[in-house]
Each structure stands twice: as C-alpha cells, then as structure tokens.
Design goal:
Blueprint (H helix, E strand, L loop, with lengths): L17 H6 L8 H4 L3 H9 L16 H13 L11 H6 L6 H12 L3 H11 L12 H8 L8 H14 L3 H7 L4 H20 L11 H16 L3 E4 L6 E3 L5 E4 L11 E9 L3 E8 L2 H7 L1 H4 L8 H10 L8
Parallel strand pairs: 3-5
Antiparallel strand pairs: 1-2, 1-4, 2-3, 4-5
Helix pairs in contact: 3-4, 6-7, 6-12, 7-9, 7-11
Length: 324
C-alpha cells in the first residue's frame, strides 16, 4: 500500500483476506539474522576476537538451533576447533567476504594449484545467473550456451563462460551473441578482481601453474569438494532420484543445469524449492575424490551415511589414494 500511493494515486491489490491479515500474518517480517545462515556472522565475530558467541548482545538474538548449525558447519570445514576457537584455516577464511564454503574452497585451491580458476568460478557464483533465455529465442540461447558446456557440470561451464568473456574483443557484442547478461558478467569481473586482490595480500596463498587441462579440472573439483563436501548428493537405489548426504532429502538437478547425465555423486552450490527441491550449480564428483578429500566424512568404514551410499563408496575405495 505504501508503494502504490508513494508518488501518485494508485491501487493496492491484496492477495489475502482481511481475516488472514489480522489472524495469520506476523506483526512484522522476521529479521534477516533469524532467517539466514549464521556461519559468516560467527566466523567474522571470531576473527574480531569475540569468543563467547552464545552470549553476544545481538540486536535480534538468533535461535540456539541456528547457532549450533553454524558452529557445527564451521567445525566440519576446519574453521574452528573442538573448543570453538578459530583455527589458522578459519582465520584465513575470514579474510574473504564470501560464504565460508566458498572461502574454504579458495584456501584449498592454492594448495591444488588452481587459485585463479576457482576465484573466477566463485565470482560467477556470486552474481545472478549470467545465462539469459528470452522467450522469443529460447532455442538460439540454448545453442549459444552449449559453447560453454562442460561434461562435468555447472562449475566448469561457468569457468568456460568467464574465460571466453574475458578473452573476447567487444564484450557487449559477445554477450549479445551468446545470450549472456553483460551487467552480470561485468559484476563477476569486478568480484574476481576484489577476491584476487585479497588473495594476493594473503602471503599464505600461493598458486602454482597447473598446465594440463585434465589435471586442472580434477584440481578445481577437489578444491570445491573441500568446501562443499557436506553439500553433496548421491543416487538412491532406484537410480532415479538424488538424496543429500546431510539430511537424506530427495532432490533433483535443476532443469537449467549443464550436467545432463545422471552422475552417481554430485556436488551442489545451493538448493531451491519450487514445485520440488532442486540442486543449483551441480558438478559430477567421482566417489573416490570424496574419500580422498573428506576421508572422515566419506570413508565407508567411518561414515554415517545410508547402507546404499556406503556400498557405492566401498566400490570406489580401491581407486582412492588413502589408507584403508
């Protein structure tokens, strides 16, 4: 109602009854801190020297469950120790103004010699989806986007799109021809510059050149597994649906994904719920890579996953470069 009459007379159409408004809707919108993932807030406070997070004087205190989830996730990522104190890795992660999953991937990428590539992908993940698909040219857009497609999935496809954008001559013309949002690509370029600048200032982050392209794709996926090993899903026994490893939720790969085949295991950036729960930005991950990178979480003898997931991991164990 405030918008409709702000600068000139207007009409406000309410999509609910007066009874719903008076009896069911909350007095005001819930504060963002209550609805958000608190992991970024917690790691920032830890970096600032606030050790007692639970009794910190928040303007709107978050629920204890949200706080425990954030602390648990940071512990799994190696950002805090068993006492809840910030680790060396956690201190490095706090230097980057991105989600802890992403900052953990940046730290890992330096060790896997793919820092520049991972920063480019994270820049693309930090902006709205750059691939446009107008109604009047859906087939042409799909055909243009296939130039960037990687068989491994969305993360490497985003990297291909960013590389092509940076290397092209006229960026405006390139975006028009390949149905990319020029505004979002410029924004991604800006984010990449900022992250690269932060990485250069961090003396602990050094990346070596990784010449072989096949080795590079493996290194990039390993770096993302280090940050997102809790955000993976595997095919169920029927082979038709995916189950998330964290809460056994049934999910599907988003229709817009570049990952077209049913990989046994996938890593995803986030889930969105529309008519069903979808994984956005998914990449195929071999199970042996999960065992190698997150041994505590995925070794079939130690993991707390379903019997079917353990069976798949046990099959992959001989290919993994870890001690049984």
């Amino acid at each position: 109602a405030g918008r409709a009459g702000r600068t000139r007379p207007g009409k406000c159409f309410r999509l609910y009854t007066l009874e719903t408004f008076e009896k069911e809707l909350p007095e005001s919108t819930y504060p963002e801190i209550i609805r958000s993932n608190l992991s970024s807030v917690v790691i920032s406070l830890k970096k600032l020297g606030v050790d007692d997070i639970v009794h910190f004087d928040f303007m709107e205190p978050p629920s204890p469950e949200s706080m425990m989830r954030a602390l648990e996730m940071l512990y799994f990522l190696g950002a805090i120790d068993e006492e809840g104190d910030l680790t060396d890795i956690g201190s490095k992660m706090a230097d980057f103004p991105v989600d802890p999953h992403l900052s953990r991937s940046i730290i890992a990428s330096a060790r896997h010699s793919c820092l520049e590539e991972v920063i480019q992908i994270i820049a693309m993940l930090s902006v709205p989806p750059p691939f446009s698909r107008p109604r009047y040219a859906q087939k042409a857009a799909d055909k243009a986007h296939k130039h960037f497609a990687s068989g491994y999935g969305d993360h490497l496809s985003l990297l291909n799109a960013y590389r092509a954008y940076v290397d092209c001559g006229s960026k405006a013309e390139f975006c028009r021809e390949h149905f990319l949002s020029e505004r979002n690509m410029r924004q991604a370029e800006n984010v990449r510059k900022q992250l690269a600048s932060l990485a250069r200032k961090s003396s602990h982050l050094e990346s070596l050149e990784n010449g072989h392209e096949k080795m590079l794709t493996t290194s990039i996926r390993k770096a993302f597994v280090e940050g997102f090993f809790m955000q993976c899903a595997h095919l169920d026994e029927s082979g038709k649906h995916y189950l998330t490893v964290q809460d056994q939720q049934m999910v599907a790969i988003h229709p817009s994904s570049f990952l077209q085949h049913k990989a046994e295991w996938v890593l995803y950036h986030e889930t969105v719920v529309t008519d069903r729960c979808y994984m956005r930005n998914a990449t195929a991950i071999p199970p042996e890579m999960l065992i190698e990178v997150a041994t505590k979480f995925y070794h079939p003898d130690r993991c707390k996953l379903t019997a079917h997931a353990k069976k798949m991991l046990r099959r992959a164990l001989p290919r993994a470069k870890v001690a049984n």
